[in-house]
Amino acid sequence: MTIVETESFTRAGRRLGLSQSAISQRLGALERQLGVKLLVRAGSGVRPTPPGEILLQYARQIFHKIEEAQRVLADYETGDGGVVRIGAGRAACHFLLPPVLKEFHQRYPRLELHVLSGHTRLTLERLLAGDLDIGIVTLPVSETKLRITDIGRDELVAIAPPSHPWAARKNIQPTDIAGEPLLIYERRSQAFQVIERMLLEAGVLPRIVMEMDHLEAVTEMVSVGLGVAIVPRWSIRPAVDRSQTVALSIGKHGLFCSRGLALVEANHHPHALKAFARLCVERLPAMFDG
Question: How many Cβ atoms from other residues are within 10 Å of residue 1's Cβ?
Fold first, then answer.
């Protein structure tokens, strides 16, 4: 490329810091490797042969891609560009992440965000497989290859339709759930394990009548009287505000889940990823608390 641009072996060597003989040797080696003549002398200059013109077009494309890759990687390190891949439960993707992602996008408008929903175990598997950069998970997590940051806890509450006898109360006991038709969300989630453990410790064998993988659907089913459910308080605030459901604490002190941020343990994380983690630590605890 430099020989064609300068039309001279000598000038190309001067620009590249190589002797004319070194330039000639490199060109000769390239021509032998490809099996074609690439350059010919024309008058006092040098011009490409037809095969040389073809190689020149590809060479320019390759160098442009290399420069583009360098820019993208430089932007990725400074947080101005690149990709951040985020994993979280479906409910968190629907209720918690939108305002956080909006603020993050305003700070880093050139950054591309990929969001994958899934329960905690699936999010952890994706992190370890390299499919995610960061995940919002339910604690505890004992995976040693991951760096876990506690970001607070949120309350799991019982919800019922406004016509339910619970509507006049502020809290219930786990034993009150015995015999109630129970709607559940994501049986494989760690939040459900917390709920199940609480009920079994109270001697309650839940009467599960419906299982769904969308928390919004659970709330809708409860609002039309198909049963009761136990869900994060932050997920049903809109429904409570619209008087579609009532929310009650469970037990004397409430039932809580601890949440965390999970990243693959590494010596270095890109600037953008660290910035997103800081924003989650700053914003999510207040959203848990309401």
Answer: 13
